[in-house]
Design brief:
Layout (H helix, E strand, L loop, with lengths): L2 E5 L3 H13 L3 E6 L2 H11 L3 E4 L8 H11 L4 E6 L4 H10 L3 E4 L4 H12 L4 E2 L1 H23 L6 H11 L4 H8 L3 H15 L4 H10 L7
Parallel strand pairs: 1-2, 1-3, 3-4, 4-5, 5-6
Helix pairs in contact: 2-3, 3-4, 7-9, 7-10, 8-9
Length: about 220
């Protein structure tokens, strides 16, 4: 039997949910009306699942998620809330929440969601699933935009960077490529300007990460 902690500042809602969950076969090991109490109970009781509202006195539910995860890492924290804000959803995911359920979900669907979390899954209200999809879509578009704006280095600049990675000085590179030391330094300066970096080492690391060069 999974052990649950119910956290909500509205007494009637909290009591009603506790009674309903108990009737559904869950072991509700505690209730809390604020974040500080919730964290203390989580630390002492180590519940399997924490049902947590976002809007509470003191710490917000989003802040409580991270604190509960710190004192009871095995606890799956689920936001059970009236907020359908995409910003709250993102903050909850960043904090380590395993679910985000809007309070208007039918009770039988809530039980199914809790069962899914108890079995190692996650839970998300249908109304929030669309928002999560939109967030992922925006993120992909942003990544594509960044890739399209990625600075391009010339073949000579990549060649110079490869020799820098080999540990050669500007003079040695110039001698090898039959160009002046100042020309080599100009290439390196152009590379740093294009990439917005400040040192040869940073430029070499960038080139390796982007598979422009390989270390010998």
């Amino acid at each position: 039997m999974k052990r649950l902690l119910v956290v909500d500042d509205v007494h009637l809602f909290r009591a009603g949910l506790t009674a309903a969950l108990t009737g559904a076969g869950y072991d509700v090991i505690g209730e809390a009306a604020d974040g500080e109490t919730a964290v203390a109970i989580a630390e002492s009781e180590l519940p399997d699942i924490v049902l947590l509202d976002i809007l509470m006195p003191g710490m917000s539910g989003v802040d409580v998620v991270a604190k509960i995860r710190a004192v009871s890492p095995a606890s799956a924290v689920v936001l059970l809330t009236g907020s359908e804000s995409a910003e709250d959803l993102i903050a909850a995911i960043r904090g380590g929440a395993r679910g985000y359920i809007v309070k208007d979900m039918p009770f039988d669907e809530l039980v199914s969601s809790i069962d899914n979390i108890a079995n190692g899954g996650a839970a998300l209200s249908p109304s929030m699933a669309g928002k999560l999809f939109d967030i992922a879509k925006e993120l992909l578009l942003h990544q594509e935009l960044l890739r399209s704006r990625k600075p391009t280095l010339t073949g000579r600049e990549i060649e110079v960077l490869g020799l820098v990675a080999d540990g050669m000085t500007s003079r040695q590179i110039g001698d090898l490529l039959f160009i002046s030391e100042n020309t080599v330094k100009n290439h390196i300066r152009n590379i740093l300007d294009k990439l917005g970096l400040h040192s040869r080492n940073e430029a070499v690391l960038y080139a390796i990460r982007e598979n422009l060069i390989t270390l010998p």
